[in-house]
Amino acid sequence: MYKNKEVSIKLSEEANDVYEELNKLVGEEKRKEINSSFHQTLLRSIKRVKELLKNNPFAGDQVQRRQLPKKYLKEYDADNVWRIELANRWRLIYTITGNKVEIITFVMDIFNHKKL
């Protein structure tokens, strides 16, 4: 809830693929009794950021228009793009939409710094 509006977090297909793959890898690690790994740290970081965004969708840094990758405008019609840092130099890229009743935080991408 942010300023008396419900906040929902939705993941793009691409972001959801990354999230599901991480869940799968972490599950395999847990079965092997691996209790600390890069994958587990990253997944915890994503879950933490999702909760943070539910409480404050504006918690990230807004990407300046001139630095806005054309991919997000083309694929998602998003000219309002935000970035928030994750563990191990990964980033979560999102846009904010909504109306008088609800705010939607749409996660477009989850990637490491090297992907840039």
Structure description:
Strands 1-5-4-3-2 form a five-stranded mixed β-sheet. The radius of gyration is 15 Å and the shape is globular. It is an alpha+beta fold. The chain contains three helices and five strands; from the N terminus they run E-H-H-E-H-E-E-E.
Element layout with pairings:
Blueprint: E1 6-11, H1 13-31, H2 38-55, E2 61-62, H3 70-76, E3 81-85, E4 90-98, E5 102-112
Parallel strand pairs: 1-5
Antiparallel strand pairs: 2-3, 3-4, 4-5
Helix pairs in contact: 1-2
* CATH 2nd-level architecture: 2-Layer Sandwich
Distance between the termini: 32 Å
CATH superfamily: RelE-like
SSE sequence, one letter per element: EHHEHEEE
How many domain modules? 1
Strand order of the largest sheet: 1-5-4-3-2
Assign a percent range to the helix content. 25-40%
* Rg calc: 15 Å
Please write the CATH class name.
Alpha Beta
Mean pLDDT across residues = 91
What is the strand content? 25-35%
Shape descriptor reads globular
Low-confidence stretches: none
How many DSSP H or I helices?
3
Q: Count the E strands.
A: 5
- Could you give a short account of the major beta sheet? 5 strands, mixed
Structural features:
globular, 5-stranded mixed β-sheet, about 120 residues
Quick structural overview:
With 116 residues, the chain is an alpha+beta fold.
